[in-house]
């Protein structure tokens, strides 16, 4: 089972919106049983970012973790959603 972290600046507002959208997408893709979702704020998760297989963020991340993070802004703006979910799906099925 893959561990997927969704984080934002405070771990409350935008990460909740994105978590709900990701959960719905996982259900429609038949992938919900393959992923365990976690939600948090970036300040709390920086020290344990490597514990997760997939990380989606709605906030700017430091350069040292940028390659590991998928930007979740498309789920807030509606632009680039398919591309973002394709990236997530590739990481789930890898």
TrEMBL record:
<keyword id="KW-0808">Transferase</keyword>
<keyword id="KW-0598">Phosphotransferase system</keyword>
<dbReference type="InterPro" id="IPR003501">
    <property type="entry name" value="PTS_EIIB_2/3"/>
</dbReference>
<dbReference type="GO" id="GO:0009401">
    <property type="term" value="P:phosphoenolpyruvate-dependent sugar phosphotransferase system"/>
</dbReference>
<protein>
    <submittedName>
        <fullName>PTS galactitol transporter subunit IIB</fullName>
    </submittedName>
</protein>
<dbReference type="Pfam" id="PF02302">
    <property type="entry name" value="PTS_IIB"/>
</dbReference>
<feature type="domain" description="PTS EIIB type-2">
    <location>
        <begin position="2"/>
        <end position="94"/>
    </location>
</feature>
<dbReference type="GO" id="GO:0008982">
    <property type="term" value="F:protein-N(PI)-phosphohistidine-sugar phosphotransferase activity"/>
</dbReference>
<dbReference type="InterPro" id="IPR036095">
    <property type="entry name" value="PTS_EIIB-like_sf"/>
</dbReference>
<dbReference type="InterPro" id="IPR013011">
    <property type="entry name" value="PTS_EIIB_2"/>
</dbReference>
